[in-house]
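BUG: 3D viewer hangs when loading the predicted structure for this chain

Environment: internal workstation, default settings.
Expected: structure renders.
Actual: progress bar stalls at 90%.

Input used:
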Amino acid sequence: MSMSNSSQALVQVLNNLTDGSIKVVDLTQPLGEETPVIALPPEFAQSPRFSREVISRYDERGPAWYWNTIHVGEHTGTHFDAPVHWVTGKDQPANTLDTIPAKKHIGPVCVIDTSKESAADEDFLLTPEFLETWEQQHGRIPAGSWVLMRTDWSKRTDEASFLNLKEDGAHSPGPSVECIRFLIERDVAGFGSETVGTDAGQAHLFDPMFPCHNLIHGAGKFGLASLCNLDQLPPTGAILITAPMKIVNGSGSPVRVFAMIPA
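Structure tokens produced before the viewer hung:
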């Protein structure tokens, strides 16, 4: 029996993964007790750090098995933001982790390299003008694609410099209000960043505040935060796979993010 064209395509992908002509890049930070968490103003409830308790480890509690109980906020480490995470997305259809269609967790990705600009200015903002210049070189951002902002912020391996908290709040690069409106017009799947959250550190001063939460989730779209290894991806041509836990009514979860790229 001959295979269909779609079956042949899947077999070819598997063969390409096996022979190394397609490479898988892990965009996920390790999740552990040292993983930084976002700090909110003290009047708000705080997300806890990751913690765990051993249930048994080859001992009298379970002689042949090892497992743990884990305690973690939904938005810890490399994580996925569902539309219901923000009040503007609370009435969107299929807005929780258990209702988002599985096919929406796979899609093309555009990587916007702002590493030089972000190194020169810790409060650098991605703008429509920057994106239009990128599009002149790489083509229009396709509908349904992920847009990932490469800043190399994930290379800040100590918590203090990664969170970069000062007297007036956090300082880290991110999208401008107009940038998010531009991406919504492009009908992207979502926006991803290397920082602790998808918004810029000073986004509480924007109008509206926290546009990558307020606007992107209000449009029923997704977020990815605390990504890494974006410097290993091409500007276009990669396929992104995001796999958050399927939590009932979940607003987000730690996520394993892979990119498939041509070797």
